[in-house]
Task: inverse folding
């Protein structure tokens, strides 16, 4: 699930990955959306499943990517 910084749902997507698989979604947000702050919430239906997640946010002015590490939310 993808949300704006105020918690408004932007998009929901399902991905199917093999164990130790890798996937990159270059179009996670709807096309043409200009969002100043957003976050993704990842979940899995696999018991004991885990993710190594990060985002690469592209600056609209310089076109430079910025690494955004994932944060684990408390349960």
Result:
């Amino acid at each position: 699930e993808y949300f704006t910084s105020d918690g408004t749902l932007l998009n929901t997507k399902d991905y199917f990955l093999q164990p130790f698989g890798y996937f990159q979604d270059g179009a996670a947000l709807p096309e043409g959306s200009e969002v100043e702050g957003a976050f993704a919430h990842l979940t899995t239906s696999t018991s004991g499943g885990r993710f190594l997640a990060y985002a690469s946010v592209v600056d609209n002015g310089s076109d430079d990517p910025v690494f955004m590490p994932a944060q684990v939310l408390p349960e």
Q: What stands out?
A: The chain has a mean pLDDT of 85.
